[in-house]
Design a protein that fits this description.
Shape: globular
Number of domains: 2
Helix content: 55-70%
Largest sheet: 3 strands, antiparallel
Distance between the termini: 25 Å
Number of helices: 6
CATH topology of the largest domain: Arc Repressor Mutant, subunit A
Structural class: mainly alpha
Number of strands: 3
CATH superfamily of the largest domain: Winged helix-like DNA-binding domain superfamily/Winged helix DNA-binding domain
CATH architecture of the largest domain: Orthogonal Bundle
Order of helices and strands: HHEHHEEHH
Strand order of the largest sheet: 1-3-2
CATH class of the largest domain: Mainly Alpha
Length: 157
């Protein structure tokens, strides 16, 4: 086995800064969502995708792909959201084994109330405090890392 390629001081600082930023940003956004709307970031993601979908409807498997969640996690979370009246599940008309997730009026009202506050929080903590060039670098880095993850997860044969 090869000796590990340890991170040098600059690489270590960059990695730790990134991890700390990511964790801090996630914790802040979660706290803000709960304080403003009483929902979790997972609830917000589900409702946001459904609110943007045609007629507020998505197949369960399509929603799972958008969220990057496994089937079991999605099912459990949707059950909790359904119990709170935010979504409903209907049989898929074209596939008896599939289901369609539909945003309810209550779910739509909640996301419409939460979205402006959520965007204001994003602006407050990130967007309004970096330059356009820094936003471009952030986007480029995100795209590059996601492409690398996709390559690792699904290697070409």
């Amino acid at each position: 086995m090869d000796d590990p390629r340890w991170l040098d001081e600059r690489e270590q600082r960059a990695w730790r800064s990134f991890v700390t930023m990511q964790e801090g940003l996630s914790e802040y956004m979660e706290r803000q969502l709960r304080a403003h709307s009483g929902m979790s970031s997972a609830d917000y993601e589900v409702l946001a995708h459904l609110s943007e979908a045609p007629e507020g409807r998505l197949r369960s498997n399509a929603l799972a792909r958008l969220l990057r969640w496994e089937k079991g996690r999605l099912s459990q979370h949707l059950t909790r959201m359904q119990n709170r009246g935010l979504i409903r599940r209907e049989p898929c008309p074209t596939d008896q084994r599939g289901a369609v997730v539909v945003i309810t009026e209550r779910g739509r009202a909640l996301i419409e109330e939460a979205a402006p506050l959520h965007v204001a929080d994003i602006r407050n903590v990130l967007i309004d405090h970096v330059t356009p060039a820094q936003l471009d670098v952030l986007t480029e880095l995100g795209d590059q890392v996601r492409a690398r993850l996709a390559e690792i997860d699904h290697p070409k044969r």
